[in-house]
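Worked Example 4.2. Consider the chain below.
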Amino acid sequence: MFGVCLAPIAALLLAPPSLAQLAPGVTMPPEIGAAYGRLGKAMMAHDAAGVRTVWAEDFVVNAPNNAVLRREEVIAAMAQDLLDYRDLRKHITLIDRKPEVTVVMGYDTMVPLKGPAAGKQVVRPFTDIWAKRGGAWLLIARQATIADAR
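Applying the procedure from the previous section yields the following structure tokens:
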């Protein structure tokens, strides 16, 4: 159901904050930066409970393989070890903060270890949408597209 094309889904989500490059003038909100860090650690450890603390229950992603997946479908792919990559870097070009929603845009560079682009550097633009719910910022939606694989 998931296919091995899912490796790029998690690139931005897994990137430790230290690997993020912010465009000049862009500032990461501390709560969202911390949430990205927690999410990355949870996904790398295949910790579904940890992922669920950052992804909203109704989280949805338009994945690089053109599939629309819900939270539990991506967690299942993670459990099947389909989200392996190396040399991940996230480049954040825009953070648009509103009182209840924050949009993060940019692109990832990474090398998937599985799937059709295995071993090639992938460039993938993304948009993440965070919402403040119950006092915490949760990732509610993500769009990711592979723009180039070399």
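The radius of gyration is 14 Å. Confidence is low (pLDDT under 50) at residues 1-18. Compare this with Example 4.1 before moving on.
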